[in-house]
Inverse folding.
């Protein structure tokens, strides 16, 4: 097949991916609202189909350009979207059996891909000399994996904060209305309880007894899932920064020069390091730590979009 | 006096206590991040001096304020260094007691428990073996699973624990940052980084003067330049039809201080040359036309002129811009103009004559990726030179006395302003710019980075677990009472504890009472447990 045919396949697969993710997103949100088992099954199937198309799009792009398919922001975005969806399906649904967050993860991927195709698209072409190194395979891959997991952790953190706020409000509502029940809801409201509930993650003890049933998993579950994902991402991100420093030493003659990209990947690293420490510090657990993770998520987006597009630096070629 | 000393000691203790707390370290870490944000949003002097100058011009008073506050050099400012130093002091203050505690914990034997059934996880199994034998078996099982085991001397009981790796990894991770600091200070302190500009055919020698001031040396740099030579045989830049750069290659001979060739090598982006502890990186390139100026007395100038490209305005590709240079000839002007008899020839090179032609006809820029019939437009100035520095001409004491144009391999006559000269352009060469640096700290920093990763994994993914076993006589056999808990990753420990309990029971002969073991053959269920 010629490069042109591969390019064609890649962009067709991209469109199919976007369409599938969009459909799966709607399906997952519908599942969240109506809780019909078939809705979840159908959405998951469509999400997997989208994932397959996404992978086809990436591989075909690599054949079209005759190089690794992560050499510019468009390609990076497509890969990021793929890994966020894969991460959601494997980690959140597979390992933690939480099924209700699909809409949010897919929404992130849909937005990422939409931005990529509207603003960042470039045709498949060769790499600029600075990127022509085997380190692109190591550094950029680690950065994409780290980013996608941080992003997934960030999404779960946002939902945690929402759920935490709702649970708090329900606690207050319960406290406000008459004498506390002797048994039932109020006994489960200890927010500092050990993570016993994690086993049945889809059960929602607090909200189940409350007047308006919550459709999201409990705040505690969300907190734990978010923590696990971020703790998984952190070493990968650390490795990405180190690999970047080694590459910088090869390409620019210094391992660290406070270039905007270096600076922001350091900022992101620092914030998530702060998050991990905060979780181990009494008084910072829960909401406060989650706010730090949220700041880290924003910092990640800055590291990717703002630094590449608006701040002049050595990584400007990544457009 | 004595109360005064006490207050001093108290305040030192207070500062130390504050620094030791994780909260302080956290806040300092986030402050460092915040300072870095400022450093990335405001142009930084070490990275892009020209953008700082532009910013200052545009922002007036605000620019002055930023300058005073050191915000144009955040990462070199005193307050950034202060935050970093405080963070490291805080880190050490946290690490020393933790390291001591770890050493103590490593030396100490696991502590026996009094109430075994009060632990989070608890189970009992009746086994066939008598208490002491059952306990021997339990110790074996636990050791096989990398638990540290301590027998109770008073009764058939044991305490076991596992997961020192978590704290060990965490400490390794944190201490490695101190090692990074050591590597950075050592490397930057004793090293240097500068730029070498070499024209094709020329040889550049690693010596203080040859950096033309474009060098930054560390505080403890010994001033020992190696004398290593670099002869640029040829520079080649390759572009695609689209104008996208493909490759920049400098073919060089690397020379010993005595001039003998060490080796021939290509230096390209991502492929530096490593010689005598210094490294050469391909950074930039440009045009250097060879020019000859002859007057009545003979040859006044014969050299390659290193040219700078005009900065491209918004929307114009940089390779569409002409290149500029200047030849300065003090005392060569003959007649006196404006109080001096110096001569300067300002040069404007168009590497591709089509670029100039197109510009003159249409006013549109044309990208000039390759040289083709290069042409130089020049302006002759006479008067007084204020500086002999290359590539900058101050014409405030000079008068323009002529203009002309000379093509490659041509010679042009300069006869205006009472001059009788020729300007020859025999050859167009290229120059290559190398970053030259010495940083002996790199291996230390690399080692620290590896230690950070090595420490991080167990620090995040392992957990400390404690288990106690007690064997009490029961009929012919014993009852194994097992308790335990995990300090981290508690949900995972639940399964692990169940499996451990089965393994301990199996080792001691399994369920003794019902059904009785048949000829010592383990039951199917036990076999499954053992093979797991």
């Amino acid at each position: 097949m010629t490069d042109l045919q591969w390019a064609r396949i890649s962009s067709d697969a991209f469109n199919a991916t976007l369409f599938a993710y969009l459909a799966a997103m709607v399906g997952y949100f519908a599942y969240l609202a109506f809780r019909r088992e078939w809705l979840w099954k159908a959405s998951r199937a469509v999400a997997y189909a989208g994932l397959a198309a996404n992978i086809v799009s990436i591989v075909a792009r690599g054949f079209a350009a005759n190089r690794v398919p992560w050499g510019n922001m468009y390609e990076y975005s497509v890969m990021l979207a793929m890994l966020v969806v894969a991460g959601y399906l494997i980690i959140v649904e597979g390992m933690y059996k939480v099924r209700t967050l699909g809409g949010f993860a897919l929404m992130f991927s849909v937005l990422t891909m939409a931005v990529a195709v509207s603003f960042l698209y470039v045709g498949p072409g060769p790499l600029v000399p600075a990127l022509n190194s085997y380190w692109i395979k190591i550094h950029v891959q680690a950065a994409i994996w780290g980013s996608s997991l941080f992003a997934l952790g960030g999404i779960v953190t946002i939902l945690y904060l929402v759920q935490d706020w709702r649970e708090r409000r329900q606690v207050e509502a319960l406290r406000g209305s008459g004498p506390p029940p002797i048994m039932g809801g109020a006994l489960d409201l200890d927010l500092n309880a050990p993570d016993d509930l994690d086993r049945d993650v889809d059960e929602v003890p607090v909200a189940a007894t409350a007047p308006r049933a919550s459709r999201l998993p409990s705040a505690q579950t969300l907190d734990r899932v978010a923590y696990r994902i971020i703790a998984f991402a952190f070493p990968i991100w650390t490795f990405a920064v180190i690999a970047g420093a080694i590459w910088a030493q090869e390409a620019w003659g210094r391992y660290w020069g406070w270039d905007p990209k270096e600076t922001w990947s350091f900022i992101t690293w620092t914030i998530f390091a702060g998050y991990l420490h905060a979780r181990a510090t009494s008084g910072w657990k829960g909401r406060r730590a989650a706010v730090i993770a949220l700041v880290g998520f924003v910092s990640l987006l800055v590291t990717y979009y703002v630094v590449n597009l608006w701040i002049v630096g050595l990584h400007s070629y990544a457009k | 006096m004595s109360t005064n000393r006490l207050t001093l000691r108290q305040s030192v203790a207070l500062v130390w206590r504050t620094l030791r707390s994780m909260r302080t370290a956290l806040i300092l870490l986030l402050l460092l991040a915040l300072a870095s944000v400022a450093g990335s949003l405001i142009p930084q002097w070490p990275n892009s001096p020209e953008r700082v100058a532009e910013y200052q011009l545009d922002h007036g008073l605000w620019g002055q304020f930023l300058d005073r506050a050191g915000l144009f050099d955040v990462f070199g400012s005193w307050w950034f260094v202060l935050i970093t130093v405080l963070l490291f002091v805080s880190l050490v203050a946290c690490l020393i007691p933790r390291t001591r505690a770890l050493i103590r914990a490593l030396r100490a034997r696991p502590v026996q428990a009094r109430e075994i059934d009060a632990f989070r996880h608890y189970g009992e199994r009746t086994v066939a073996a008598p208490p002491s034998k059952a306990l021997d078996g339990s110790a074996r099982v636990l050791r096989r699973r990398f638990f540290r085991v301590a027998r109770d001397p008073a009764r058939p009981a044991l305490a076991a624990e596992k997961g020192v790796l978590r704290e060990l990894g965490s400490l390794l991770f944190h201490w490695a940052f101190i090692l990074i600091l050591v590597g950075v200070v050592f490397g930057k302190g004793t090293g240097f980084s500068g730029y070498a500009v070499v024209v094709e055919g020329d040889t550049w020698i690693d010596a203080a003067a040859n950096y033309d001031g474009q060098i930054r040396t560390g505080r403890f740099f010994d001033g020992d330049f190696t004398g290593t030579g670099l002869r640029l045989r040829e520079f080649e830049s390759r572009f695609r039809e689209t104008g996208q750069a493909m490759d920049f290659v400098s073919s060089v001979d690397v020379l010993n201080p005595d001039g003998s060739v060490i080796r021939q090598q290509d230096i390209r982006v991502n492929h530096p040359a490593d010689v005598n502890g210094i490294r050469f990186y391909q950074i930039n390139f440009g045009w250097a036309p060879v020019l000859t100026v002859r007057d009545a007395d003979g040859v006044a100038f014969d050299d390659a002129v290193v040219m700078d490209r005009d900065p491209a305005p918004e929307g114009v590709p940089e390779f569409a811009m002409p290149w500029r240079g200047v030849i300065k000839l003090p005392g060569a002007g003959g007649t006196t103009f404006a109080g001096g008899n110096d001569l300067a020839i300002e040069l404007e090179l168009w590497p591709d004559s089509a670029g100039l032609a197109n510009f003159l006809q249409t006013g549109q820029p044309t990208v000039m990726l390759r040289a083709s019939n290069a042409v130089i437009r020049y302006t002759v100035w006479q008067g007084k030179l204020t500086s002999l520095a290359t590539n900058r001409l101050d014409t405030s004491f000079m008068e323009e006395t002529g203009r002309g144009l000379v093509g490659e391999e041509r010679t042009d006559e300069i006869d205006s302003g009472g001059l009788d000269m020729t300007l020859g352009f025999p050859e167009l060469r290229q120059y290559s710019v190398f970053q030259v640096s010495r940083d002996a700290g790199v291996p230390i920093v690399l080692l620290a980075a590896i230690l950070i990763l090595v420490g991080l994994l167990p620090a995040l993914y392992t957990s400390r677990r404690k288990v106690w076993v007690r064997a009490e006589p029961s009929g012919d056999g014993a009852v194994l009472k097992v308790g335990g808990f995990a300090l981290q990753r508690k949900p995972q420990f639940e399964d692990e504890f169940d499996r451990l309990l089965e393994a301990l029971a199996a080792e001691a002969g399994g369920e003794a009472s019902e059904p009785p073991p048949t000829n010592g053959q383990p039951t199917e269920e036990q076999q499954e447990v053992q093979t797991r």
Summary: The radius of gyration of chain A is 21 Å. Residues 182-213 of chain A have pLDDT under 50 and may be disordered. Chain A touches chain B through 50 residues (CB under 8 Å). Residues 282 and 289 of chain A are 10 Å apart (CA to CA).
